[in-house]
Amino acid sequence: MTSKYPHLTSPIKLGNVYFRNRIFSAPMGATDITPDCYPGPRTQGFYELRAKGGAGSVTVSELVVHPETDASHMLHLDLVTPGCLAAHTFVADAIRRHGAVPSIEFSHSGQYAGTYLTDKNKKESLCQWGPSEGTRPDGRPVKSLSKEQIADIVKAYGDAAVLAKRAGYEMIMVHAGHGWLLNQFLSPYFNHRTDEYGGSLENRIRIVREVLEAIRTAVGPGFPVELRISGSELFDSGYDLEDGCKIAHALEDLVDMIHVSAGSYQFGFYVTTPPMFAEHGINVHLAAEIKKHVSKPVATVGALNDPAQMEQIIAEGKADVIYMGRALLADPFLPNKVMAGEDEKIVRCLRCYTCMAERPTTGTRRCAVNPIIGREIEGMDVTPAYKSKKVLVVGAGVAGLKAAVTAAQRGHKVILCEKTDKVGGILKSEQAIPFKYEMYQLGLSLEQQAIEEGVEIRLGVNVTPEYVATEKPDALILAVGSTPIVPQLPGIDGDNVVIVNDYYLQKEKVQESVVVLGGGLAGCECAVHLGMEGKQVHLVEMRDVLAADCNIRHKPILMKQVEKYATSHLRHVGLRITEEGVVCQAPDGSEVLIPGKTVICAVGQRANRACVDALRFCAPFVREVGDCIRPANITKAVYEGYHAALDI
Ligand SMILES: Cc1cc2nc3c(=O)[nH]c(=O)nc-3n(C[C@H](O)[C@H](O)[C@H](O)COP(=O)(O)O)c2cc1C
Ligand code: SF4
Predict the structure, then answer these.
(1) Whole-model pTM?
(2) Least distant ligand from the CA of 77
(3) Which helix (H) or strand (E) covers residue 58, if one does?
(4) CATH 3.20.20.70 domain residues, the chain
(5) Lowest mean pLDDT among 78-82, 197-201, 452-456, 605-609
């Protein structure tokens, strides 16, 4: 069998180690770390799943090498706590037993120690260290590391390397990017030292050379060491790509691969972890340029998930290895699907940032489209039911689709009824918004899975109690979703009004000036899209905050886009709609016209409770899932659909 993607799926040798393909799992901080700084069982499951899915290598992230100056980073792993080696050995084993190479990222947060503390007040009792004295953007003072401390940190990298190798890790990634300590030394923005660790580029890279030398001495020849850098810091007064090339060139003799990421925490993580508004592979050009200046293999990363694009990157010599972060949370089996040429089965990452938002919010990990992320030890496999049953799923939105697929995978006979003529529910409306197209694709890929699993899909069927009585299912899953709220304002029935869910059907109707009524997540994203299309957009919200329903990582990025593409009117209450726009009550009580030839109504959704009430006693097992309980988000719908099916 020949590979559909011969470059992406070809093995690579780094040092003395073979990797089965070029798809590597990027470091992503895990879910549970014990109070003793050990990787807990959930952490092991978190990494193991991606090894099982076929990645060439899986990187365990955020091992803090020098807790004395970095221990303030909550949820950190280290290799200095007595007894921690066993836990690391179990993690490395768990990755290795599925054919992936276990790698571990060594990190030091430097002045950003404590950044992820869920309890922000704790930062007050911490001390942050960097190359030079200064003040963090959040006001925390930063102390300058002494030469003795630097020597101690360098030694700590070597000590950690000895233990990492002993635990069974087969590669070490040294993190010198994203604005963490080694990056702070490389950066003229952070590093104002006047000794041999500051000033010239040669001096600024000195600590990184020392770290790499200490690691090499510790692990010996042939053990792959990878250097993760930001190809460019991508902000004024940080270092640029030209310097990035010089840094890579100056350090390549000490490493087996240069891993080119981007950006600096100081100016937001969105360059490093690109949002849905950025093009796929936005940072590949950095790797491609650096590759021209080094002879060692180069890895690229950032918003990559399309096998054809990744194949092309390697075929064109822009990089040798592709790292993926979020795409492998959304679908850990992406590499296996690529190897089998089944890319139509890939579940795409939405770049919604739920995964990143969970940790600062709840201290866990979660993925919107993959219900087992962060919960892998609760069961990585969908297991067959002890008895095959007849399952009727009502509603083919995301919750119903996920329930139907999962129930069918368990061996149940599943009928999925949808009252409209297409599956996908609310996700159908995302097809007209390019940066949300992957949400639409989620519906398509779930539909494809349902067909493959033998789910019988019945379209145009309104399920009534009589219908259920005729079918006599053993289990009934109610995934009947929600309906857009349409405020009863004068003018709401006008031809100039489009309900946001119908935008994809009525796109052509939308004029050059638009009022979006409702500044929740859907309204904000629609406003941004219309602005990107060149329309003049006004966004009206009755509360004093936009996108209150948005996660804390997506929100600041979304707000920047809203600022760029729309004029917002907070605390404005819509009174009536005219051909000229929406007449609102302004905060001072006066009436103002917010102008726009088209009005997009995006004031929220209401759960279809009547439908649930009509059906809730119609089968021996009945479960409600998704928006019909309470309109929320994809994460909740997928999670509930999946677990309802596991309970049958
Ligand atoms: C949930 C999450 C956790 C991350 N944790 C780390 C980390 O601990 N260390 C690190 O170097 N990068 C971390 N990153 C950045 C990723 O390694 C990667 O560079 C970035 O997400 C871009 O790749 P992607 O677009 O494929 O997700 C994290 C990213 C995510 C989404
Ligand atoms: S939570 Fe969202 S951004 Fe994170 S991996 Fe899942 S789909 Fe992608």
Answers:
(1) 0.96
(2) 1
(3) strand 57-64
(4) 12-378
(5) 78-82
The residue whose CA has the least distance to atom 1 of ligand 2 is 367
Q: CATH assignment of 390-484+606-646?
A: 3.40.50.720
Give residue for tokens 């899209």. 529
Q: What is the pLDDT of residues 375-418, one digit of tens each?
A: 999 988 899 999 999 999 999 999 999 999 999 999 999 999 99
- How big is the CA angle at 471 (ends 470 and 472), to the nearest 5 degrees? 95
Which residues make up the CATH 3.40.50.720 domain(s) of the chain?
390-484+606-646
Are 17 and 101 spatial neighbours (Cβ–Cβ below 8 Å)? yes
* 516 Cα–ligand 1 center, Å: 34
Between CA 91 and CA 44 the distance in angstroms is 5
Task: Quote the CA–CA distance of 269 and 178 in Å, as a whole number.
Answer: 8
Q: Which ligand has an atom closest to residue 59 CA?
A: 1
Query: Hey, whose CA ends up nearest to atom 8 of ligand 2?
Result: 349
pLDDT tens-digit map of 302-360: 999 999 999 999 999 999 999 999 999 999 999 999 999 998 899 999 999 999 998 87
- Side chain identity at 286, as an amino acid letter? L
* C-alpha of residue 27 to centroid of ligand 1, in Å: 6
* Backbone φ, ψ for residue 413 (5° rounding): -90, 115
* Cβ 315 vs Cβ 7: under 8 Å: yes
Q: Phi/psi class of residue 488: alpha, beta or left (left: φ > 0; alpha: ψ in -120 to 50)?
A: beta
Measured in Å, residue 331 CA sits from the centre of ligand 2 at 10
Q: Encode pLDDT of 608-617 as tens digits.
A: 999 999 999 9
Look up the CATH architecture of domain 12-378. Answer: Alpha-Beta Barrel (3.20)
User: Boundaries of CATH 3.50.50.60 in the chain?
Assistant: 497-603
Fold of 497-603: FAD/NAD(P)-binding domain (3.50.50)
What distance in angstroms lies between residue 620's CA and the mean position of ligand 1's atoms? 45
- Which residues have C-beta atoms less than 6 Å from ligand 2? 326, 329-330, 349-355, 367-369
Q: Say which ligand is closest to the CA of 61.
A: 1
For residue 365, give the ligand 1 atom closest to its CA: 1
Choose one of 28, 273, 331, 349 to mutate for the ligand 2 pocket test, by most ligand atoms within 8 angstroms of C-beta.
349
